[in-house]
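During the no-cost extension, the postdoctoral fellow (Dr. R.K.) reprocessed legacy sequence entries with the updated structure-token encoder. One reprocessed record is reproduced below for audit purposes.
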Amino acid sequence: MDKTAASRLLEKTVSEALKRGALGAECAWSSSHARSFRVRDDELERSSTAERVSIGLRVLDGKNRQGVASLSEFDGDTAAELCDAAFENARHNAPEDDVIFASKPPEMPQDDLALYDEVIPRWEPEEQIALCLDMSREARRLDKRIRCVPTAGVSTGWGDSLCLNHKGIRCESRATYGSLGLTLLGEDGDASEINGAGCSARSAAKLRSSLPVAEAVNNTVRLFHGRTLPSGRYRLVLEPSVTVAFLGELAELFSAVSVYKGLSLLKGKMGQSVASDKLTLIDDGRIPAGMGSSAFDSEMVATRRTVLLDRGELSSWLCNLQYGRRLGFESTGNGCRGLSSLPDVDVNNFYVLPGSRSRDEIIAANDGCFCVAELMGLHTIDTVTGDFSLGARGHYYKNGVFSPVSSVTVAGKLTDLLKNITEVGADLRFFDRFGGCTMVVDDIAVAGT
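Re-encoded structure tokens follow.
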């Protein structure tokens, strides 16, 4: 089904929903293609291709109940089938008197967001497999302690989408994506490590120029023979990847859904200082070639740059239409939903505003610090109380020497961690939709020996 046929089908479906008494209707279509190749050492282990065309309908019935339905096979009367299912599903939901549909077209960005790369759909499978093999061989060449490359893979995808609602708002988009990744097994005497690295980008050229081989090797061999630390309170230096891992959990604190439901420790603190003045957090849906970028969100609301923490002061939530209204805010363009799910809230490109000094300068200025390279158990952070207790690995830096550290636990409260940030580095790096920098956090409890 091409976009012209899809447009006619969406119009017919929305019209059918209104005829059946819907107070509102929104219909979306997507056509996606995906490829992936995975090599183990020097052998192709797995290859896959997939194509999918789907259509989804969201309705608000005459009793203010929302219902959703989707189809990926179009036999018979698709519009009628979708309406039957969506209205039936609405019967099982509670009435809501504050459901909103977009009522004006989103303002488009003046500059191209660079979301689509013409090369990715034409990128030959043979070239992608060769790239995986090259990464695998290069990893073993860089360090003889790399004994095995369990995974060297590449994934690419591209697609078109179209959405319209009963108010005549219509949006369409086109995007590509790609990712590279390696998992390595390293051995040094009686020590062994499994680690790796990856990257993502909108274009094939960016992927080719960002091969994560050296980083994967370094991540695997640098923590051999790690030892524990004496228990105490330490100054932590978090690597950008660790900062990003924290951001993935912190994002929930700013979700209007979490705030409304009382699941965020930041509830009731708008306008207050909740973190160090060194910390500014931003969500921006219009970063060129950003992995979370788009001109509009899944509710057809324009994306934008939203400052959530301004030098430690809480200044905004991440909002969609409905939950923004419930908290007294307008949508920040952070609405998200699948074709068969109700609207929710999610980040676009969520990142830390960088500082001025490099990682090396920061570490040199913090003798006796624990440089954290990995945190485990982040999903256990309690976003209501802020309590956390996480396994950690990295290096202890003293007098210019880095000593590998493992088998320790860092613990405390998110509120204290946020307020104890003393510096943010200049090395902003994005891992998919999250961007982090080297970050210094003072006075954190570490449990070791």
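The two ends are 63 Å apart (CA to CA). The mean pLDDT is 96. The remaining legacy entries will be reprocessed before the final report is submitted.
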